[in-house]
């Protein structure tokens, strides 16, 4: 993943870090990068890449239940939303005009929204809204 652009590290809560490590998710293997045209996020073996123009809504969310968000990338059963969570406190939920790939390696499952949990939620939201 390119590191050009604004970088927003994930905020790891200790209990989330322990659960995430079991799935190859560490601070070194996570990233959120926003450049002039794209959003890219890596969460261990999972990643997304979409145009900023594809983002239709940005909202601050949280708190989250540990049992529903800790560990690997999470797929919302009711809406196919994707969650890359590293803490229970706060995150940023994005909605897309065109659903994105990210959960499965073949790209069969498409996600209408994505939740990310960076250190600087307000900063990421501002970068995505510009």
Give keywords.
130 residues; alpha+beta; five-stranded mixed sheet; four-stranded antiparallel sheet; 16% helix; globular
Structural class: alpha+beta
Average pLDDT score: 95
SSE run:
EHEEEEHEEEEH
Low-pLDDT segments, ≥5 res: none
Subunit arrangement of the protein:
single chain
What's the arrangement of strands in the largest beta sheet?
5-8-9-7-6
Describe the structure.
This protein has 130 residues and is of the alpha+beta class. The protein has 3 helices and 9 strands, in the order E-H-E-E-E-E-H-E-E-E-E-H. The protein has helices at 14-21, 66-69, 121-129; strands spanning 6-7, 30-34, 38-43, 46-51, 55-61, 74-75, 82-84, 91-100, 111-116. It has a 5-stranded mixed beta sheet with strand order 5-8-9-7-6, with helices on one face. A 4-stranded antiparallel beta sheet has the order 1-2-3-4, with helices on one face. The longest helix has 9 residues, at 121-129. 30% of the residues are buried.
Q: What would you say about this model in short?
A:
Helices cover 16% and strands 36% of the residues. It has helices at residues 14-21, 66-69, 121-129, and strands at residues 6-7, 30-34, 38-43, 46-51, 55-61, 74-75, 82-84, 91-100, 111-116.
Element layout with pairings:
Layout lengths: L5 E2 L6 H8 L8 E5 L3 E6 L2 E6 L3 E7 L4 H4 L4 E2 L6 E3 L6 E10 L10 E6 L4 H9 L1
Parallel strand pairs: 7-9
Antiparallel strand pairs: 1-2, 2-3, 3-4, 5-8, 6-7, 8-9
């Amino acid at each position: 993943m390119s590191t050009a652009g604004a970088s927003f590290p994930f905020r790891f809560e200790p209990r989330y870090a322990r659960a995430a490590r079991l799935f190859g998710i560490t601070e070194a293997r996570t990233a959120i990068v926003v450049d002039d045209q794209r959003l890219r996020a890596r969460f261990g073996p999972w990643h997304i890449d979409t145009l900023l123009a594809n983002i239709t809504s940005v909202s601050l969310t949280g708190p989250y239940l540990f049992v529903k968000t800790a560990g690997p990338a999470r797929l919302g059963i009711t809406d196919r939303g994707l969650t890359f969570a590293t803490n229970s406190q706060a995150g940023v939920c994005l909605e897309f005009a065109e659903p994105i790939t990210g959960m499965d390696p073949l790209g069969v499952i498409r996600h209408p929204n994505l939740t990310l949990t960076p250190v600087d939620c307000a900063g990421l939201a501002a970068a995505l809204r510009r």
